Amino acid sequence: MFSSHDGLCTIGELAEHLGVSVKTVRFYSDRGLLPEASRSAGGHRRYGPDAVERLGMIRSLRGLDLSVPEVRRILDEQDAQDGREGAGAGGALEDAVVGRLRVLGSELAALRWREAALRLVQECPPAERPDRLRLV
């Protein structure tokens, strides 16, 4: 992946390696979540090997539907813990997961209610169905 002599890759190479768009890499870079290693003489972004792991982590967290601010808190906490012996899983990740599980539980309850209502409509004989459905 890192085909250059200096061990750095272009934004396009990083994006291709992780299966995301250049626009996505630029978005996270511009927000400081994915620091660039340097700029080329032409002003192009260059990324080091650590960017692969970092972008992979960002993708995983976003895949869990965590917001960008939550991802930032998690990464900031992880950065603060790097280099400290015995540093365990952080509170930011735990808080984000607990919050997401709470929201997901509410969404699942709403989906179950909607499914039950649709099944009632489906099972109701056509002759007994009201002309207009009123769901309260």
Automatic annotation (TrEMBL):
<keyword id="KW-0238">DNA-binding</keyword>
<dbReference type="GO" id="GO:0003677">
    <property type="term" value="F:DNA binding"/>
</dbReference>
<dbReference type="GO" id="GO:0003700">
    <property type="term" value="F:DNA-binding transcription factor activity"/>
</dbReference>
<dbReference type="InterPro" id="IPR000551">
    <property type="entry name" value="MerR-type_HTH_dom"/>
</dbReference>
<protein>
    <submittedName>
        <fullName>MerR family transcriptional regulator</fullName>
    </submittedName>
</protein>
<dbReference type="InterPro" id="IPR009061">
    <property type="entry name" value="DNA-bd_dom_put_sf"/>
</dbReference>
<dbReference type="Pfam" id="PF13411">
    <property type="entry name" value="MerR_1"/>
</dbReference>
<feature type="domain" description="HTH merR-type">
    <location>
        <begin position="8"/>
        <end position="77"/>
    </location>
</feature>
<dbReference type="InterPro" id="IPR047057">
    <property type="entry name" value="MerR_fam"/>
</dbReference>
